[in-house]
């Protein structure tokens, strides 16, 4: 492109932007406008009932948890396994959250983890700014968001995922309107329920989940890794059902927990754990505590070294010596841990092989016993057959004797 072309094209960056996706743009802006104008207007002119607010909170929670526990930790990361009834619940209320089908959402999210912060390949790269990572990436037809399920073959084999994907639009419409209309018919406050459990719930649900892609990559601390922009943020965790511990999540993405300490606010982790007590979830994946501490110590050493090299500490030689000594201890501990873990794995392997041998032996014994019983039974039948043959012969002879008499 010549200099003249560049000057004539006006705003080059907007000229290069992919086309707007009108359906998404209208959906996000109209629902936002209705929530911002319609809800306060109704509140001032009619007032809301507590039942209306209760329905709003419950459906909002079901939507949010279906995204965090279902779409995110179950399907995108395989952090645990779940009973079909729980998966069906997540598929239905996840559709109500209107963030695309599980298949599209989870495959995009796997790309986000694989290419985190890459401007071209991360669908909601934080490097493209807060607006882009929050909602901008969904408003235009960006190549990074193009459907590509090559990283989601496992999900394509999941019947509930594929059923939801095929019927997504119908499920979105039904799950967004049916609960609100149903509650409206029961309570007699149709407009209140459509506004609270319908529009306001959808808008709050949208933006609280979008915070995980936007704010959780900008605001907070990085105790586990600084290799990417993800942050841990306790305040954000309150609005995102525990997904605010995003720095931890980006380094240990298969852990079913995001808030790894018991006191960290992670209702998604509590839901998955509680469900395991009644058999609705199982195989909950957990990163060993040692690995978590190792990541934290790595970061602490890295930061201390940075400060030292920037000359920010007085007594630099003593600090350096102390740091080197601590680092040596750290390396020794890691070395010992690896050795002990190796021994532990070998011992487990031995136990398993001993158990397998014992099982094989038992099977052999059972087989021998079975063969013996089979042989005895077959001999028994042979004897009965011979006996019967004798009986027949006896009858024949008896008849012959009678004929001869
Ligand atoms: Zn992220
Ligand atoms: Zn994730």
UniProtKB/TrEMBL annotation:
<keyword id="KW-0560">Oxidoreductase</keyword>
<keyword id="KW-0812">Transmembrane</keyword>
<feature type="transmembrane region" description="Helical">
    <location>
        <begin position="168"/>
        <end position="188"/>
    </location>
</feature>
<dbReference type="InterPro" id="IPR005804">
    <property type="entry name" value="FA_desaturase_dom"/>
</dbReference>
<keyword id="KW-0275">Fatty acid biosynthesis</keyword>
<comment type="similarity">
    <text>Belongs to the fatty acid desaturase type 2 family.</text>
</comment>
<keyword id="KW-0443">Lipid metabolism</keyword>
<dbReference type="GO" id="GO:0006633">
    <property type="term" value="P:fatty acid biosynthetic process"/>
</dbReference>
<feature type="transmembrane region" description="Helical">
    <location>
        <begin position="20"/>
        <end position="41"/>
    </location>
</feature>
<dbReference type="Pfam" id="PF00487">
    <property type="entry name" value="FA_desaturase"/>
</dbReference>
<keyword id="KW-1133">Transmembrane helix</keyword>
<feature type="transmembrane region" description="Helical">
    <location>
        <begin position="84"/>
        <end position="106"/>
    </location>
</feature>
<dbReference type="GO" id="GO:0016717">
    <property type="term" value="F:oxidoreductase activity, acting on paired donors, with oxidation of a pair of donors resulting in the reduction of molecular oxygen to two molecules of water"/>
</dbReference>
<keyword id="KW-0472">Membrane</keyword>
<keyword id="KW-0276">Fatty acid metabolism</keyword>
<feature type="domain" description="Fatty acid desaturase">
    <location>
        <begin position="52"/>
        <end position="273"/>
    </location>
</feature>
<dbReference type="GO" id="GO:0016020">
    <property type="term" value="C:membrane"/>
</dbReference>
<dbReference type="InterPro" id="IPR015876">
    <property type="entry name" value="Acyl-CoA_DS"/>
</dbReference>
<keyword id="KW-0408">Iron</keyword>
<feature type="transmembrane region" description="Helical">
    <location>
        <begin position="53"/>
        <end position="72"/>
    </location>
</feature>
<keyword id="KW-0444">Lipid biosynthesis</keyword>
<protein>
    <submittedName>
        <fullName>Fatty acid desaturase</fullName>
    </submittedName>
</protein>
């Amino acid at each position: 492109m010549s200099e003249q072309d560049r000057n004539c094209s006006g705003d080059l960056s907007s000229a290069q932007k992919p086309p707007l996706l009108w359906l998404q743009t209208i959906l996000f802006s109209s629902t936002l406008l209705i929530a911002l104008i319609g809800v306060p207007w109704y509140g001032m002119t009619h007032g809301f009932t507590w039942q209306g607010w209760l329905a709003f909170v419950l459906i909002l929670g079901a939507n949010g948890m279906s995204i965090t526990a279902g779409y995110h930790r179950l399907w995108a990361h395989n952090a645990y396994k779940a009973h079909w009834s729980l998966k069906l619940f997540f598929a239905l209320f996840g559709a109500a959250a209107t963030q695309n089908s599980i298949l599209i959402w989870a495959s995009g999210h796997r790309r986000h983890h694989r290419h985190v912060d890459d401007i071209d390949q991360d669908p909601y790269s934080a490097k493209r700014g807060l607006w882009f990572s929050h909602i901008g990436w969904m408003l235009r037809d960006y190549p990074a968001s193009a459907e590509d399920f090559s990283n989601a073959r496992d999900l394509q084999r999941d019947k509930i995922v594929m059923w939801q994907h095929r019927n997504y639009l119908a499920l979105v419409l039904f799950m967004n309107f049916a609960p609100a209309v149903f509650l409206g018919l029961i309570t007699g406050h149709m407009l209140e329920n459509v506004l609270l459990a319908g529009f306001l719930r959808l808008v709050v649900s949208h933006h609280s989940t979008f915070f995980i892609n936007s704010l959780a990559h900008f605001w907070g601390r990085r105790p586990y890794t600084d290799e990417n922009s993800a942050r841990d943020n306790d305040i954000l965790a309150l609005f995102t059902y525990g997904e605010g511990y995003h720095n931890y999540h980006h380094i240990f993405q298969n852990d079913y927990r995001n808030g790894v300490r018991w006191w960290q606010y992670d209702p998604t982790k509590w839901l998955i754990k509680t469900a395991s007590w009644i058999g609705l979830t199982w195989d909950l994946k957990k990163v060993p505590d040692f690995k978590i501490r190792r990541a934290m110590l790595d970061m602490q050493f890295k930061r201390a070294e940075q400060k030292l090299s920037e000359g920010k500490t007085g007594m630099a030689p003593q600090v350096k010596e102390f740091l080197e000594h601590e680092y040596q201890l750290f390396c020794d501990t890691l070395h010992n841990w690896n050795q002990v873990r190796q021994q532990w794995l070998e011992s487990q392997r031995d136990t398993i092989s001993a158990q397998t041998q014992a099982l094989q032996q038992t099977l052999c014994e059972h087989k021998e016993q079975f063969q013996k019983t089979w042989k005895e039974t077959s001999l028994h039948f042979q004897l009965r057959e011979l006996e019967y043959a004798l009986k027949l012969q006896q009858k024949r002879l008896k008849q012959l004797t009678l004929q001869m008499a």
